[in-house]
Amino acid sequence: MRHFLRDDDLTPAELVEVLDLAAELKAAPYAHKPLEGPQTVAIIFDKPTLRTQASFVAGIAELGGNPMVVDGNLAQIGTRESIADVARVLGRQASLIVWRTHDQSRIDEMAAYAGVPVVNALTDQFHPCQTLADLLTIREHKGDRPGGLAGLTMTFLGDAACNMGHSYLLSGAAAGMHVRVSGPDGFQPDPEILARARAIAAGTGGSAEIVLDPEAASEGADVLITDTWISMGKEAESSDRAEVFRPWQLNEDLLARGADDAIVLHCLPAYRGKEISAGVLDGPQSVIWDEAENRRHAQKAIITWLTR
Ligand code: CP
Predict the structure, then answer these.
(1) CA of 305 to the centre of ligand 1 (A)
(2) How far is the C-alpha of 44 from the C-alpha of 27, rounded, in Å?
(3) pTM score of the predicted model
């Protein structure tokens, strides 16, 4: 039984398969019905969402399935009853379980007991569905070149210790990209995840590095990315972070250091004037609305791939 709990659950070759499938499903959104029946997919949220809920619900319906949204606040998974028992129950109702939750250990436990594939819709450590959508978006805008994504430089600016920083390291390395993550002191990726990304990159011709200086990190980048400085659960640190992170704001100055045809990604929700300037977010190099749409196509692909 395969799950998609972190980016490196797909090998580099499997990542290409899933991205190819996503492009195919985007071109013909209603042509494939692997969940015909309809089969039910449980989608559980322990944290706020807009894009993830909307794109999974719409995508599962397009695949011929029945999306069953479960409110994590009502279910109180791990408090009202154990994660293992919830997994056993939902695994008898659904063909696949999607979960947005807190620590990665929770979704690992869900996967161990569910008896059906489990997909990570964001944990504190990873957001692999977002990076699948991002790679699809980069491929659409940049991939029409020998090697596809391989050899492109992708820079992530901001909280490099957060789930997005980790997921870009792993997924970018698998795609053969040169991944740079850049954040203030104390906001660096988990060393084990950086080492894992480097091991993957050794096999794909990519690279994974921490570049502390945001200007150096942006130099020549083909893709410039940021995310909110205040990840879910870090709201109490909001005012301190605004000051510390200021030099990492993705603004016109940093964008000018990127390649002339650099594109800008942001997984959203965005805070204009904080982690990104309004001019960059709403400017001609931004592809964020394609990125938001691609959540649906990428997630349809991973569901199709896992249940095939
Ligand atoms: N990017 C993302 O996961 O959006 P939501 O938090 O709104 O689902």
Answers:
(1) 22
(2) 28
(3) 0.97
Known catalytic residue: 130?
A: yes
C-alpha dihedral sign at 273, 277, 282, 286: negative
Sign of CA dihedral 94, 95, 97, 98: negative
The residue whose CA has the least distance to atom 4 of ligand 1 is 51
Q: Which residues line ligand 1 (CB under 6 A)?
A: 49-52, 122, 130, 267-268
Q: Does residue 237 surpass a pLDDT of 80? A: no
Instruction: Report the nearest atom of ligand 1 relative to the CA of 48.
Output: 6
> What are the backbone dihedrals phi and psi of residue 44, each rounded to the nearest 5 degrees, phi first?
-110, 135
* 295 classed as catalytic: yes
Q: How far is the CA of 63 from the centre of ligand 1 (A)?
A: 21
Residue where the block lists tokens 């929770």: 106
pLDDT-based confidence at 3, cuts 50/70/90? very high
Residue 70 has pLDDT above 90, yes or no: yes
From CA 225, how far away is CA 134, in angstroms rounded? 10
Average of per-residue pLDDT values in the chain:
96
- Cα 301 to Cα 23: distance, rounded to the nearest angstrom: 9
267-273 LR contacts (CB < 8 Å, sep 24+): 267/51, 267/127, 267/130, 267/134, 267/164, 267/227, 267/291, 268/50, 268/51, 268/292, 269/50, 269/228, 270/228, 271/228, 271/229
Q: Is 297 a catalytic residue?
A: no
At 118-153, the pLDDT tens digits run 999 999 999 999 999 999 999 999 977 777 899 999
**pLDDT tier at 231, thresholds 50, 70, 90:** confident
